[in-house]
Write a structure and sequence with these properties.
The chain is mainly α. The chain has 20 helices and no strands.
Amino acid sequence: MVFSSVVFLCFFLPVVFCLHRLLPGIRLKNAVLTLASLLFYAYGEPVFVFYLIFLVFVHFLVGKIARKKGKFPLPLFVLLLILDVLTLFVFKYAGFFVESINGIFGLALPVPDIALPIGISFFTFQIMSYAIDAWRDNRLIQEHFSDLLLYISFFPQLIAGPIVRYTDIAAQLKERHATPLEEAQGLRRFIIGLAKKVLISNAMAVVADALFTQSATENLAMPQAWLASAAYGFQIYYDFSGYSDMAIGMGHMFGFHFLENFNYPYTADSVTDFWRRWHISLTTWFRQYVYIPLGGNRKGKKRTIFNIFIIFLLTGLWHGANWTFLVWGLYYAVFMIAERLQWIPTGKIHFKPIKWLYTIFVVFTGFVIFRADTISQAWHIICSLFDFSSLDKVGFSGALSYLDFYTVFILFAAILFSGPWAKQLWNKCKDKKYAEGLSYVGAVVLLAVCMVFLVTDSYNPFIYFNF
């Protein structure tokens, strides 16, 4: 079940929200959210929901043992981390690992065909967050199995984030409140995210998919290659930021407050700045649980470079079991290290448009690697990005053939809303009460439009649904 589905919008969410609103006491509210979350996951993963419960139970049991001992024994903590890493490796990387071994050494080892649980990277990182936070501070050990299960399985952020660290939500599991105004604001945020996904991301996906499919059989002209890169860049941004908006909005509706996951990444003026703005929950997780424990930037230049390399190697691997993701992570490691060493002197350039163009160039070129099915396909498209010989009438007309009036309109909307200009205009409104009322009217209209598109259009992919 995905958020942008009729079943979720018309049945699941309204029923769960009403039950949560009517039931008294935090225990009953948590119980209905836990049950609803398990049903939500079981709707698409009826088998793996039991493994999810098992994983939570093991962590709860170890935490209970640690509480009795008065401290979290290091061996038990290490065992939990091994279990979590093995979970990711077996389900997500075992097949890729065996295929790579076969390819490198010319072997014919049987490749395990293991189904990938939806959202495994997200819920595994969250349960690792609990293990690490509880080991660091025994006061954070969860006393109630149901609350720990709710933290891991909570449906708004279960299958595509944002990754919620345990320290950020532990207190909210015990006590939280949502006023009618906060619930309304959460619903409005949810609708905005839904519109990002349904109206912008889906339209860009049609263009991106067509061009990347074409690139698998023939070389793209330069205008087509850049259109493919831009279309996918906007598709993935509005897909994932839209999903995050929906998750954060639903969190508000149920009294939870999740941290922001995106901060206008396409306005960044360096690659380093881009990663401060893009998928903030993932970069925060790696910074808090990997980068800083490795020494961060406190142990000299060489160690800092090594730590950056490790972080982006893991970032690439986290996104998927494919060489394209690994290369994509290393691609960013090169630019992050180059900026750190001032080989690319972004700190010394004061003309922001130049820094912005450089950043967009790097990011959108990187998305070609991320989206391609193979390294070979990515290389051919990247070569096409710089094939000036294809700058002829055929090349431009070939790109324009993928755009109609509606798609061009959506492309301009994607560019407009990728920056903070609409928010800045909102902040300048003199009559905030009047503007606030209009925003809810606009949200209702957006919801109606989205419902029309969902009912009439069967094309509704979710990129991060696979991670």
